[in-house]
Design goal:
5% strand; binds copper (II) ion; mainly alpha; 15 helices; 7 strands; 378 residues; di-copper center containing domain from catechol oxidase
């Protein structure tokens, strides 16, 4: 009885219409402690994977799909060359007035995980744990610590920032804000790391990221991660739009992580058109990495609850930057549409619900401009 009530409430609050084969998950649910308050003092349970699966990243592109250009957005044809040229011209006029060297003279270099020293790694993880130990701002009712403010923001905005051309831009600003909060609130004094998943596509478990020493196992079979520095981490935001205490869980699937490969990344980066490239990147290495790590990372809404989210998204942002570096016009022009179908312009805003100032796309296209000031080590 208790188990069916629980699954019903999860299903309703996360917007799921029907849960298939309830008998398949009953045994898992039945193992949950009896009340939510009791959970707060205990190890949070692993939730049945179905709760994450329901909100998984969709529109995934294999190398074959990419070769067939299945990522193409129908709407990008409406963005005429004339329009794009005008936006480029407009941006050039503005950037002529800005001395980039003067506003970003101390560029931070985000270092790939394998080259990030043990001291850097520990400082970074300490800063994340610091955020997790600090109280929430109060801005988000579902958040129980400062780190979960960031997860809540992502959960709140999920429909606006996925599946449309804002995806790469919003997540770029979100990562920058994460770094800025680590620095201003937890004394972090280095640049973020990023993780080159092309080196370990199809074999994530061999990476030191998922070792006892750092993030703990990726092969957790959907159970709680019980090793590494985030062992038994309790999460309160998600899955989906619901909020229920659960542990950090993972469920590695190499048949999916194989597509974080260089061929997938390069296949998307060969695309000339921003909106098409962004669509390809989102359904390419981005989605495969999320779904391949599994469980919490499989939940579009609550995936930042797994701290590896930020290593993964720095990889995606780095791929975007590599694409921009191929042609200088790519830091001065934009196309594609937002979730409502409105064309993006350089003046379209990117907001983080006031956790940091709202910016315009023109402010964050260049990672070495006056708003952001970072690059990647390769
Ligand atoms: Cu996201």
């Amino acid at each position: 009885m208790r188990a069916s009530l629980l699954s019903a409430s999860l299903a309703v609050s996360s917007g799921v219409v029907a849960l298939p084969a309830i008998s398949d998950v009953l045994s898992d649910i039945a193992a949950l402690p009896s009340s939510i308050p009791a959970l707060l003092d205990e190890i949070a349970p692993a939730l049945p994977l179905l709760n994450f699966e329901t909100h998984r990243f969709t529109n995934m592109f294999t190398p074959e799909d990419i070769a067939q250009r299945k990522f193409e957005k129908n709407d990008t044809d409406t963005d005429t060359t004339e329009e794009t040229q005008f936006r480029t011209f407009e941006a050039a006029a503005v950037s002529n007035n800005v001395n980039a060297a003067a506003t970003c003279s101390n560029v931070r270099v985000r270092i790939e995980w394998d080259s990030y020293s043990n001291s850097d790694r520990q400082a970074y993880i300490n800063a994340i744990k610091c955020l997790q130990s600090r109280g929430p701002s109060g801005q988000f009712s579902q958040s129980r610590n400062r780190y979960e403010d960031l997860v809540s923001l992502h959960q709140n905005l999920t429909p606006n920032i996925h599946g449309n051309a804002k995806f790469l831009l919003w997540h770029r600003y979100y990562l920058w804000m994460f770094e800025d909060i680590l620095r201003s609130e937890c004394g972090f004094d280095r640049a973020l790391p990023w993780w080159d998943e092309t080196r370990v596509s199809g074999r994530f478990a061999v990476s030191s990221v998922f070792s006892d020493q750092w993030y703990g196992a990726v092969n957790a079979g959907g159970n709680c991660v019980t090793n590494g520095q985030f062992a038994n981490l309790a999460l309160n935001v998600g899955p989906g739009t619901s909020n229920y205490p659960h542990c950090l869980a993972r469920d590695n699937d190499d048949s999916q992580t194989q597509y974080t490969s260089a061929s997938v990344v390069n296949g998307c980066n060969n695309e000339n058109d921003y909106a098409n490239m962004a669509s390809c990147a989102e359904g390419g290495a981005h989605a495969w990495g999320h779904n391949g790590i599994g469980a919490v990372m499989r939940d579009t809404y609550g995936s930042p609850g797994d701290p590896v989210f930020f290593l993964h998204h720095a990889f995606i942002d780095r791929n975007f930057r590599i694409w921009q570096n191929q042609n200088s016009a790519r830091v001065n022009s934009i196309n594609g549409r937002d979730t409502s179908g409105n064309p993006l312009t350089l003046d379209t805003t990117v907001n983080v619900q006031d956790m940091r100032p709202t910016v315009r796309i023109r402010d964050i296209l260049d990672t070495t401009g006056s708003t952001l000031c970072y690059k990647y080590n390769y």
